[in-house]
């Protein structure tokens, strides 16, 4: 596990911006995924929430924030 108390030099980081309007501030929101009973681990239809970031100015969610292959089980 990574040490969360590390000092990070943000001058070496690239600021993220909205792909739609170029705004740089985001708010956390949810995308809901409906799993059919055939693929749900419980055998019943399930709704699975995924936290993503949406632009505060226009509400757009960048595609890189919705990559579901990064979700750990």
Poorly predicted runs of 5 or more residues: none
User: How much helicity do the residues have?
Assistant: under 10%
Cα(first) to Cα(last) distance is 17 Å
Secondary-structure content class: mainly beta
> Order of helices and strands, N to C?
EE
Number of helices: 0
Number of domains: 1
Oligomeric form of this entry?
single chain
Using the CA coordinates, give the radius of gyration: 16 Å
| Percent range for β-strand residues | 25-35%
Mean pLDDT: 87
Fold and architecture overview:
The protein has 73 residues and is mainly beta. The chain has one domain. The protein is built from no helices and two strands. It has strands at 26-35, 46-55. The protein has a two-stranded antiparallel ribbon. It starts with 25 loop residues before the first strand and ends in an 18-residue tail after the last strand.
What key attributes describe this structure?
73 residues; mainly beta; two-stranded antiparallel ribbon; 2 strands
Write a short abstract of this structure.
With 73 residues, this protein is mainly beta. The protein contains no helices and 2 strands.
């Amino acid at each position: 596990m990574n040490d969360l108390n590390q000092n990070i030099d943000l001058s070496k980081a690239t600021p993220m911006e909205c792909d739609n309007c170029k705004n740089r501030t985001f708010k956390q929101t949810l995308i809901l995924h409906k799993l059919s009973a055939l693929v749900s681990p419980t055998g019943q239809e399930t709704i699975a929430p995924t936290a993503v970031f949406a632009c505060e100015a226009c509400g757009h969610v960048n595609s890189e924030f919705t990559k579901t292959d990064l979700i750990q089980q």
